From TrEMBL:
All copies of domain N-acetyltransferase, residue ranges: 9-187
Native organism: Hapsidospora chrysogenum (strain ATCC 11550 / CBS 779.69 / DSM 880 / IAM 14645 / JCM 23072 / IMI 49137)
PANTHER family: FAMILY N-ACETYLTRANSFERASE, PUTATIVE (AFU_ORTHOLOGUE AFUA_2G01380)-RELATED (PTHR43305:SF1)
Official protein name in the record: Putative N-acetyltransferase-like protein
InterPro entries: Acetyltransferase_Enz, Acyl_CoA_acyltransferase, GNAT_dom
Keyword ATP-binding tagged: no
Molecular-function annotations in GO: acyltransferase activity, transferring groups other than amino-acyl groups
Annotated keywords: Transferase
Recorded superkingdom: Eukaryota
């Protein structure tokens, strides 16, 4: 009976120069695979300033690596990023303290750049990355995690839904066609 899917996968916060370079390569592979112009997200400056908005303690820049690889160095399977985000006032869902007297603004994090290299697909790497990012968002005190994806990415949409995300209203303007906005309450 072999190892369960995902058993040889390690998730690590990218902090060293080699790890940050691996994240940048993963991000570039993601954008190439996506085949869309995402310059409206200031993508190039994001690459130049890694870890940038994804730095701890408010964010996460996570690499999935293969523990079973006999190759020297990192054997990167994929990546995901988490960052704090301000959403428009009309998106906020205010918490009620029970008595209705004190309300607070919710804290939001955004998942970005989930990508798994083609040769690692089918090993549950994306699911492991999503779960780790959500766990870190909880630990960091966020109330909700949001993301955007494209409707044509049906496997990604299905994966997010299976992890508890639901379609939500737009929390920022994305000019691409077929954008799907999703969110998950952590409280």
């Amino acid at each position: 009976m072999g190892d369960p899917p995902g058993s040889s996968i390690s998730i690590r916060q990218a902090t060293t120069p080699d790890q940050l370079a691996a994240v940048a390569a993963c991000f570039r592979a993601y954008v190439e695979w996506l085949g869309e112009d995402i310059s409206f997200q200031n993508y190039e400056s994001e690459l130049q300033s890694l870890p940038g908005k994804y730095a701890e303690p408010a964010g996460a820049l996570l690499l999935a690596t293969d523990d079973d690889s006999s190759e020297a160095g990192l054997n990167v399977l994929g990546c995901i990023a988490l960052r704090p985000i301000d959403v428009p006032a009309d998106y906020y869902r205010e918490d009620d303290d029970g008595g209705g007297q004190q309300r607070r603004r919710r804290r939001y994090a955004e998942l970005k750049r989930l990508f798994v290299y083609p040769e690692a697909r089918g090993r549950r790497v994306a699911r492991v990355l999503i779960r780790e990012a959500i766990g870190r968002a909880r630990e960091q005190g966020y109330d909700e995690v949001v993301l955007d994806t494209l409707g044509r990415m049906t496997a990604a949409v299905s994966l997010y839904k299976s992890e508890g995300f639901q379609e939500v209203g737009a929390y920022y303007h994305n000019p691409l066609n077929g954008v799907v906005y999703m969110g998950m309450s952590l409280r």
